[in-house]
What we know:
Blueprint: H1 2-21, E1 23-30, E2 41-44, E3 51-52, E4 58-64, E5 67-74, E6 80-87, E7 93-100, E8 113-115, H2 139-148, E9 164-167, E10 170-171, H3 189-192, E11 196-198, E12 214-217, E13 227-235, E14 241-248, E15 256-267, E16 277-291, E17 294-302, E18 305-308, E19 313-314, H4 315-321, E20 329-332, E21 335-338, E22 341-345, E23 348-355, E24 361-381, H5 396-408, H6 414-433, H7 436-439, H8 443-450, H9 455-465, E25 474-497, E26 500-521, E27 528-529, H10 535-538, E28 554-555, E29 560-582, E30 585-602, E31 614-615, E32 619-633, E33 638-649, H11 653-656, E34 673-685, E35 689-719, E36 725-756, E37 759-772, E38 777-782, E39 790-794, E40 808-818, E41 822-832, E42 834-835, H12 845-848, E43 849-850, E44 855-856, H13 862-868, E45 873-874, E46 877-890, E47 893-902, E48 911-915, H14 923-930, E49 940-943, E50 948-956
Amino acid sequence: MIKKLSLVSLFTLLPASFYFAQTTVFAYVKDSQGKPVEQAEVDVKGAENDVTADKIGYFQLVDLQPGHYQLVITKPNYETKVMEFDVANDEKRKDLGVVTLYSSLTTADQGLAIIDSNDDDEDSSQASTVGLLQSSMDVYSRIAAFDLGFYWFRPRGIDGRSGETMMNGVSMVKSDNGSVDFSNWGGLNEITRYPEISQNHAPSEYAFGGNSSVIYKNTKASEYRKGFQFTQSLTNRNYRNRTSLRYTSGMNSKGWAFTVMGARRWAEEGIQEGTFYDAYGTYLGVEKKFNDKHSMTFNFIGSPYRRSTASPSTQEVYDYRGVHYNSYWGYQDGEKRSERVRRGFQPIFQLQDFWKINTKSSLWTTASYQFGKDRGSRLDWNGVTNPSPQYYRNLPSYYINSIIYNATNNSLNPALYTTLTDAYNTSLQGWLNGDPSITQINWDRLYENNQKNDVVDQAEMSRLYNLSGKRSKVYMVDDVSDDKIFNAGTHYTYNFNDRTKFILNASYQNYRSELYREMKDLLGGDYAINVDPFKESARPGSTGFYNTNDSDVEVKVGDRMTYNYIIRRQDVKINPGLKLSTGNFDVFVSALAGYSTSNREGLFKHYLYENSEGKSKDYNFWNFGLKAQVVYRINGRNFLVYNGAMYNQAPFLEDLFINPRVNALVNPSIRSTVYTANDLSYVISTPFLKLRATGYLVDTQNETNVQRFFADGIQLNNTNPDGSVSQVQSAFVTQVMSNVEKRNMGAELGVDVKVLPTLSLQGLASYGQFTYRNNPDVYLVSDASGSSVTSFGQAYIKNYKQGGTPQQAYSLGLRYNNPKYWWVGANWNYLDDNYLDPSPALRTNNFIQNPFSSTPFLGLDNDQVRDMLRPVKLPSAFFLNANAGKSFVFGKYYLLLTASVNNILDNKRYITGGFEQTRETKAADFAADFYSPTPSFGPKYWYTQGRSYFVNLQFRF
């Protein structure tokens, strides 16, 4: 009997022995006041051990095998927290201590992921805090992004081309210009809303990055909340409505998980006149878990869109029609029609493999392919003047300036004065009264002109090209980019122990884009011609054919015209990194070795350029870099953090090929851009006070800037077919500013103080000095001057302020969070020291000097020159923002309602950006326009849209 009992006991205890061979992990979830947070959801990434914290905030996870784990802890009205921990072979129980969740307040609907590997206890100084700043968005970054970002504030004055955005392990940065096309996943907020962010130039685990952050988005199907989520939004911004629905199956017993989402954003008319918006977003994620060590995911992202854009304008136009004026539309048959419409669909297909090699190492590998076309329509014309309603000859200022010009030259007779005065009064009244035949595109007139029986033009077309019918002189074209982008990347990690980690990232991108112009709409005519209308000034007696390989110059709808070429780039990067913790120091070192090769292939043979057709040579660049982060723990709540970076970045294709539409010319002094960046921060993190104070210095060398515009008085030499040289006074030009050096330095302060348990005071202060450090070289290229590159010497812009963002920013606000799950907040924002970038051509000796005498133009003194070329400073402004929200829980159903209002006082004087026009490139002519009552070629601006709101309803079931 005893033997039988022993045998039964043995088999009974075996499962228990197996159970106790596993590990139980437990912790307590509390808020910033130390009070328990009940019903917080605790999800183990990639596993099925999801639990809910009880009434005292306690949770435990059982049967965890040895390995590395990530926890996602969520609770309505609290910031999402992600924790990482390891389970060793001999651990039976693991205590994670107290996990603190902070009130989300303004970020309740932003979905910010706070990833932090340490807790808030004083004795946590021995825990690793390498991730203290690099993966979280602190109060400064949060206010800068969601309050000041609305007004085009750019932290540290750094543009996005020196950053990195990744989707499931591969880069989404396009090689042509270094930008990220966020419209490729537009509307999929609930899919892409939890990025991991390495701020500014701090090192990242996923990529080397640049100076404007590494943003890593992961769309793993099993990591979304199981069930449905419906969202409805109302706003008065670019779109008016947004509707989305997401469904997640969760991981089933066979190891499959599915997430699918659809969204639409639309507006019959946005806040800007004549604009519309219609965009869809679709997502499909499929995950297969083979075992605890191996899983694969498939992701499809596709967001077709169609939307119109708004125009910049001179101050004269805004004074007539207000800040919502848009010149890109007009009435056709009583309906509004826009000329500038962007349409595209470039879906992304991704396959990602997750392999946990052993308890110390893992390998993530991704392959991604994206293809599709992006089209941007616009009016084009041949043989007539610009049909835009705000073309300078169509504005009242043109007639006033004509009166002044003729009076100055003693040619203003009574008849001419009467004619100009009548024309001025007619134009002025039309603009003031908003006559759409004057202030907007007159589509009916364009059709009428194209359908005229122009006997002279028809005879000319018949004689030159043997064409018959009515020629369209104004028509709609599409500028098309047909992209094919293959990306591959791998992310390997090896944990030597819980304090030392090795990381290796490798990536490859193959970028190919075919760019061409396509006829979209002949606007009533029978055909257009693929011939340069300026051929006689560019090369007298030439054919003027944009493609001399095709003698048929007739263009119908769907035909390609003007230009057609392919640009390619292959890019390989290796990025090793090491994270370690020793004593009171945490160190993260990241390195880069990269190689890129680029070329252009012309598919048209331009009549002016021998190098327009065929494949160019390959342009190869090696790039290297080093980043470091050092965190010194003064104690568990006070830290010193240093981030340093030095690296070079290969030129993007648009900087390398300076006139790619018609030839393979490259920047004559092109080199990789060199960046050196340093910052030092003091950080306080307590339940009652969160603070970051930072000083930074970022230097840039060898940068290239390319601009295109029409210039009068440009003085370019043109070699004629007979070998003679003539001067071209007016031409479309490409301006290249090379060897640019910049310095961005300043200080940042972000603070969050708990005034009361439910009331927080939050603030931001940013003071910067963003300047040019040298006088860069300026080159001009034009079809009118053939294949030569004309040096314009140096642009004297040293110590000029950089444009594009306010250099001072301040914000102060209060946030009230009620225990009954509702909140309200408001903040005051002030922006100052915002400038337009200086036009390089206007700051060269060629602008000041008479080309015939090599002396300054007569009639200009030094004071006038300084006055004309002073930096254009934009007005300062302050704004009030407010937000509120309330969440409801009905059993397993969750409802969240949020609302925000920006620019409550409806300030419409704030200019968000703009540019100096470089039409007049001779100082004497520039002065005449500059000092006129209403300059024809003053700067063009974009204004803030005024008061805006956003209301969001989210329902989970």
